[in-house]
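Mods, move this if it's the wrong board.
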Amino acid sequence: MPLLFLAIGVGAGVLAGIFGIGGGIVIVPALVLLARMPASTAVGTSLAAILLPTGILGVWQYYKAGHVNVTASVCIALGMLAGVYFGARIGLTLSPVTARRAFAVFLVAVAGRVWFG
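Not the wrong board. Structure tokens:
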């Protein structure tokens, strides 16, 4: 599972670098759909993964309730460290129109997967 969590982190990092997104749009659905985590644990784990930039108080509440997977959080954070670098490099090469359209396609794909998944 750590490799799956690392891959989720890399993907979230790349998308964060391109679109400025991460936790709610990428990590939570990936943990629910790919890692089969309960939604509340996916949210707590996502918050823990992005702990330093945001969410410390939210993480504490989810952690106290037993809804944080610490291993997954650390692996995702490490993956994001690498992924956001490459995502930012890719994002900087896209025209504003291409970036906007790519983001729209991504949102529709995620929405479809969540809706029908």
